[in-house]
Amino acid sequence: MEWIDWQPIYQDIVNRLSLDTIMDIRATQLLTELLKDIEPDPLLQLLEQRIINRTVVICGAGPSLEQHIQILKERNDYQDMVFVAADGAVSLLLEQNCTCNIIVTDLDGDYNHIKQATQNGALTIVHGHGDNMDKIRDVVLSLGSVLGSTQVEPTERTFLWGGFTDGDRACYVVTNYSPKRIILAGMDFGKVVGKWSKPKHETHFAAPQRKVLKLEIAQELITALFERVDIPCTILESVLGNE
Hints:
Strand content: 5-15%
Largest sheet: 8 strands, parallel
Shape: globular
Number of strands: 10
Number of domains: 1
CATH architecture: Alpha-Beta Complex
CATH topology: sialyltransferase cstii, chain A
CATH class: Alpha Beta
Radius of gyration: 16 Å
Helix content: 40-55%
Distance between the termini: 32 Å
Strand order of the largest sheet: 6-5-4-3-2-1-7-10
């Protein structure tokens, strides 16, 4: 995603959510500095290799994710699928003994699970924004070789794929590398948040109004993306019925 194309979309999100663009820029600068000794090109090549011509399952942390994974496990092509976890969805994939190939995270999910999946071989993309700089400082270096992402103008160590929340950003990342097809799992876009989204939640919980707005933006971005790209996409429907 070129900054000139993303900038008006980002500015609309800034206006709707009253984001602090200066803090977003500072987060990108911080992430860039922390990743200065990690050469991104081999990681970018690995990212492409994991996605190109593959069936990719992008997992949001919505309440339906557990049922969706169980449905996918019954398919004949399950073992050949590539699984991308949007942040906290990694917790459910670990719980279900489902291989996590790629993580897209702003570090809101369970850090121990993100680290475990990364050590198990997941390629992790850490996103920087104005609200997560403390987490970036605390944990990025301990995750090892990761890629950085941004929602403002990119740098030599933070990349702009597009997208705003972890789920829709994962969609933008994946479509950039020519998958054969995409399946969206756990992308409920409702008013109930999956318990995997935040650590220490034992049950799904009602989405605060700001979260509802973020999910609306995520759905808009995903809809616009798949109207633009020529990649078959299946959206698994909510199976809980009351999101």
